[in-house]
Amino acid sequence: MRGFFGLKLTVAAALLASTTMAVAEDVEVLHWWTSGGEAAALNVLKEDLATKSIGWVDMPVAGGGGEAAMTALRARVTAGNPPTAVQMLGFDILDWAAEDALGDLTTVAAAEGWDAVVPAALQGFSKHDGKWIAAPVNVHSTNWVWMNKAALDAAGGKAPETWEELVAVLDAMKANGITPLAHGGQAWQDATVFDGVVLGLGNDFYKAAFIDLDPAVLGGDQMAEAFNRLIKLSTYVDANFSGRDWNLASAMVINGEAGMQMMGDWAKGEFVKAGKVPGTDFVCIRFPGTQGSVTFNSDQFAMFGVESDGAKAAQGAMASAIMNPTFQSAFNVVKGSAPARTDVPNDAFDDCGKKAMADLATANDSNSLFGSMAHGHAAPASVKNAVYDVVTAAFNGSYVDGAAAAAALATAVAAAQ
Ligand code: GAL
Measured from the CB, is residue 33 less than 6 Å from ligand 1? Predict the structure, then answer.
C-alpha cells in the first residue's frame, strides 16, 4: 500500500517538474467578467498571475451567465484555435470534457491535494473520468435578494421571510414611489429569479423539477404556482426593464431608485465596488422561503488542450494560483462569492460573505445544496435553454396563467432531452 502511494507520488512529482520546467507562456483567458465588480475581482487574478510572471491576454465576452462567451468559445474551437483558459460553468465543462477538448490538471491537483479540500458538489463538475479538468475559483449562489436598507426601512424595516411577507414589502415600496424590483429582462436573469421562486416552494420540489426533470412535476400544480409567483413578480419591475444588464439593475438598488434585486451574489461585488456596506447601506437575505438551502454555481477555469510545453506550464501555473487558499480569500472577498475550498478562513469576508460560507456548509450537510438551473449546474445547456425560453415567455406575459406555463415547460424540457 505504502509502496504504491510512494510510487504514485514520485511519478506525479516527476511529471509536474517536467511541465513546470518549461517557461510558462502568456495565458489567453476567455471570460464574461466585464461589470465593475467582476472586473475588480478579475484584476485580483491578473495581478496574482503577474507576480508569478504569467502574462495575461484578455478575451472578454460580455453577457451575464456566459451564453455569449460560450458561443464565442465554440467559434474559436471550431477554428482550431482555442484560448488557453476559459471561465466555464457546470455542465458546459462536462460537455467539453466529453468532446475530449480539455487538458488534464490531475498532476497539479494531486500534488496540491485538491481532492481533500474541494467540496464534492464542485468536484462533480471539475473532474471527468477521474481526471481534474477544471480549477474552481468560487462558489456563487442564486437564491439571494439584495435590498436597499433605507428603502427597506421605509417599507417597515423587516426583511421578508415568506412569500406573503415579500409581496407586502414589494407593495409598500411601490406605495413609497420607488421601483420595487430592479430587474433586467434577459433570459438568464429571468431564470435566476426563477431559481429562487422554485426553491421557495421546497427542496423536494426544486430537486424533482430541476435536477431529476420529472415531467409530472415540471407540468404539475406546484410548478403552476411557481409561475404564478413569477408572473406576480413581473408586475413590480419598471417600464424599462427589458434587455437591461444585471449590473445596471444592481445600480438602481445601490442608488435607491429601486428597492431590491433578486440576483446571485456577484451583485454584492457591485455593492462593494460602490463602497456600500452590508447592514448599513444594503441588506442581503436568502430568497424568502429558502433559508438553509442553496442553489449554487461555481465559476471554474477549464484548460483547453494545447501542444507546447510552455502553454501547458502556463495552464498548470494558473490552475495552481487559482487554487491557492490566500488567493481564494482575496478574490472572493471582491467577487461576492464563497471560496471553492473548505479550508479558507472567513475573517476577511463581510457579513454577507460570512453568511454565504455558513449557508453553503449548512446546505451541504443537510442535503439542501442544489445546482442552479439558471447557471448551468442543474442540467445540460439544451435543457437550460428550454427552461429559459418558457420562463422568459412567462415573465413577459405570454401565458394566460401559471398552469399554461407549467404545461409548456414540461413539453419544452421533454423535447430538449
Ligand atoms: C454567472 C457567473 C458569475 C457572474 C454572473 C454575471 O454565470 O457565475 O461569476 O459573472 O454570471 O455575469
Answer: yes
Residue with the smallest CA separation from ligand 1 atom 8 is 299
Cα separation, 395 vs 234, whole angstroms: 6
Which atom of ligand 1 is closest in space to residue 33's alpha carbon? 10
CB of 38 within 6 A of ligand 1: the answer is: yes
Could you tell me the distance, in angstroms and rounded to a whole number, from the CA of residue 87 to the centre of ligand 1?
10
> Is 64's C-beta closer than 6 angstroms to any atom of ligand 1?
yes
Q: Which three cell numbers stand for residue 138?
A: 468560487
pLDDT digits (tens, 9 = 90+) for 370-417: 999 999 999 999 999 999 999 999 999 999 999 999 999 999 999 999
Ligand 1 atom index nearest CA of 266 = 4
Fold of 11-140+297-354: D-Maltodextrin-Binding Protein; domain 2 (3.40.190)
| pTM of the full structure | 0.94
List where CATH 3.40.190.10 sits in the chain: 11-140+297-354, 141-295+366-416
**Which segments of 118-155 does DSSP mark as H helices, in order?**
120-126, 149-154
Q: Could you tell me the distance, in angstroms and rounded to a whole number, from the CA of residue 297 to the centre of ligand 1?
A: 8
Backbone angles phi, psi at 244, to 5 degrees: -65, 140
Give the residue ranges of the chain where pLDDT is below 70: 1-22
Nearest protein CA to atom 7 of ligand 1, as residue: 65
What CATH architecture is 141-295+366-416? 3-Layer(aba) Sandwich (3.40)
288 lines ligand 1 (CB under 6 A): no
Give the per-residue pLDDT at 21.
53
Question: What does the DSSP assignment read for 264-308?
Answer: -TTHHHHHHHTT--BTTTEEEEEPTT-TT-EEEE-EEEEEB---S
